[in-house]
Amino acid sequence: MTRISLIAAALGASLLAAPAFAEQPTPLIAQGCAGCHGQSGEGQGAVARIAGYDRDAFLAIWQEFRDNSRPATIMNRIAPGYTDEEVQILADYFASIQ
Ligand code: HEC
Q: Among 58, 61, 64, 37, which Cα is nearest to 48's?
C-alpha cells in the first residue's frame, strides 16, 4: 500500500465508525445516577424521572442543589461532587435520552 492509500483507508475507517458516536453512549459519570433514578433515568419509586430533562432546567436545579437553596434530602450532597464540565455532560446526556 502507498502512503496515500493508507491514509485513505484510515479516513474511511473513521468515517464508518462515526455513526456509533452519534448514539450517545452512557457517560461513566451518569452511571452514578442509575441506582436512584433508574438505569436510563426513567425514575423509580419516589425518585424523579430525569430522562428527557430540559438542559437549562437541569443546570439551574443543579446549581440550587449545590448552594442548598432547593429543599433536598440527598442531591444537595451529591451535586457539589461534580465539576461544571461534568454537570454539562450530565445535562446534555439526560436531555438527549427519553
Ligand atoms: C442516592 C440516590 C440518588 C442519587 C445517586 C442521585 N439522585 Fe438525583 N435525586 C434523588 C432524590 C431523592 C431527589 C429529590 C431531591 C432530594 O431529596 O435530594 C433527586 C432529584 C434530582 C433532580 C431534580 C428532579 C426534579 O425535577 O425535582 C435531578 C435533576 C437529579 N436528581 C439528577 C441526578 C443526577 C444527574 C444524578 C447522578 C449524577 C443523581 N441525581 C443521583 C436521589 C438521587
A: 37
